[in-house]
Structures are given as structure tokens and as C-alpha cells.
Amino acid sequence: MSFDKLTDYLDSLQDTYGMPVGDLLVMKDHKEVYRHSFGYSDYEKKTPVSPNNLYKLYSATKVITMTAVLQLVEQGKLKLHDRLSDYLPEYDHVLVKSRLPENEEVCHVAHNDIRIIDLMTMSAGFSYDLYAPALQEKIKESADSASTREMIAALSKVPLLFEPGTQWNYSLSHDVLAAVIEVVSGMKFSEYLKKFIFEPLGAKDFYFQRQIDEATKKRVCAIYTADNDKPPFYGISEEKADEFTFTKNYESGGAGLIGSVDSYILIVDALACGGVGKTGKRILKPETIELFTHPYTTFGQLKKDFDSLNRIGYEYGLGVRVLVDGSKSKSPVGEFGWDGAAGAYALVDTKNNISVFYAEHVTCFNDNYHVIHPKIRDLIYEGIEEK
Fold this sequence. Notes:
Beta-lactamase, Methane Monooxygenase Hydroxylase, Chain G, domain 1, 8-stranded antiparallel beta sheet, 3-stranded antiparallel beta sheet, 13 helices, 16 strands, 19% strand, globular
């Protein structure tokens, strides 16, 4: 193995983009084969980044939420084609927007039930409208204290964009699944993750946004954003950075976690190694993990919708991208994972027991997904293959 090209590329991100911070960790067969970080946990103060730093994971949270859902499926407590309303009764007879030729909007009661698999595959009809009146009213009414279950109940009042199962749209679907996990397990979402995923794998550094103390908050890297999708980057407010967390008690299954690179890699390492972590504890069976490798947006409107995200070579599966075209990547067909709004990137390769986690802290920057992540992925595989 030789990763000189990868190291050079990571370091070049500072010159090319002015990237403030990055940290990459690669494991194979439970062993660390590469680690490199660059930049500063606080660019203005020039504080060097360290493994102790934490990152807002945003949608990289989704891989962990999907793992929790599949645990419940594996145990027979949940089925992929169960109706959402079986667990959250307020989702019986939800409304769907109807678009008329005159561009007027009316609603009708959904003809299709929302199924658990629709939530996992982002085909349930939800949007990512964080400021929908029903949600904002619940936040205000609860004085910023509504629970996960209460906020998701409020979401049921927001009309769907389309009939469940007919289109693909990136949305709050995985937040809804966090509420389902709470109902099925009888535990808070955070407690479930801690007991059945984090503790068995020895992943000690995960927290939910707005639920961390001041000492932990100081470990979180400063976060930046792009102006019109281009450098230079500038800092954003804590309120803006935490907008996916509706209230101080809300635990978002789609974007709520903060974590360290060292802890996150333990999750994807376990998934890459047949469901068994570095600790020797099992979180999923290999045949359950295999479900992650099945694409669900391979035809029709679902494919057209997902392709608009420009994840070249990939389709969407159970909450993850799935590589379907081996000519577009140095990784093998079936490789899966996801990313986050601030540039986080997770990769799971079950064929070679390879896991990758890259943390960054810049939002609204599409080069992360279309340029930087694919380049990092391919250089990792080149480095592993190099004699």
C-alpha cells in the first residue's frame, strides 16, 4: 500500500479551495491502514485539528439510523412493507398535494399507504421543508421543548409532495424513522443508538446537536459555508448550523448527530466486516447488511429523480447510495454509504472489508460531492492496490 497521492490531494484542498479542515480515516479488516488530517479546528484562531475534535455529521447520521432500522427488521419487530400508520397512527389518511393545470394547489387523501421501505428509500413523499407552518407552530407552542415523537406528529399535518412510492425526493423521511424506532423499541432514539450500536462497538463520541455541554461544545470544529457554492468560505451562526434540530429535545434521525472520526469509523467498519465490530460484538447479520447493497431507484421516475443529485455511477438504496456502475469508480459494485451537508463522507465495501470516513466542515459546497469525495474514494483504492 502507498497513499502518497492521497495525502498530496488532501493537502491540496487547502490551496485549491481554502478548505479549513479535513480528517480521513481508512480501515480494512478492523485495522487502520491510513489516517491523515489537515487544517484547523478553528481557522481564525489557527488551532490545529486533532482526533479529539467533533464534527456535525448532518446526513451521515442517516447510515446509523438505517442500521438501527435494519436491526429491528432483523429481529422481526419491524417489516419493510409495514404501514407507517401501524406505528404512528397520525399518518393514516395523510394528505397529498394535487397540482392542477392552472398551478393551483389542492390536496387529496393519499391513495397509497406510506410503508417503512418508502421512508428508507426516500419515496414517501415528504420534503425537507424545515419551516413548514405546522412544524414552526409546534416549536413555538412547546417553547422549544417538543420531543422527537411530538415533532414527527406535527409533520403529519404537512401535505406530501406526491403519492407514496411513486417518486424519489430527499426529505425528512429518516427523521420519521427515528420516531418509529422510539415506538417499536420503547426507548428514546438516542438511548437506542447508545445501547445497541454505539456501546457494542466502543463508539464513545456521539452526541445529538443541542444536547451537549459546554466542554463538549468546545471540541466541535468551527463550521463554515460557501457563498454561491464557491470559496472563500465564511463562518455561520450556531442557530443556522443547528437548523435541522427543531428543538432542544428533538433527536433527528436524518441529520442530528455530532461525532468524531474515530467513533464514526467504528460503525462503517462493522458494516464492512459482516456486522461484527472491532470489539468482536455483532450489530447486524451479513445477510441483513446485504440489503444495503440493493438499489431501489433503477427505473422510471425514481431513477430520474435520484439522478438529479449527480451521484455518478450510483443509485439509491435503503438510505444509502449504492454503486451500480463499476466503470465510474475504483470501488466495487455494491459499495455503499452516504454523506453530510458539511462534507462528511462514509463508504462501506463489504467485498474487501474496507471502510472509510472523511470529515469536513463546509456546507453548501457541491464540489464536496461531485469532485472531492469521488477523488478521495479512487485514490484510496489506488493506494491500497499499489505495491
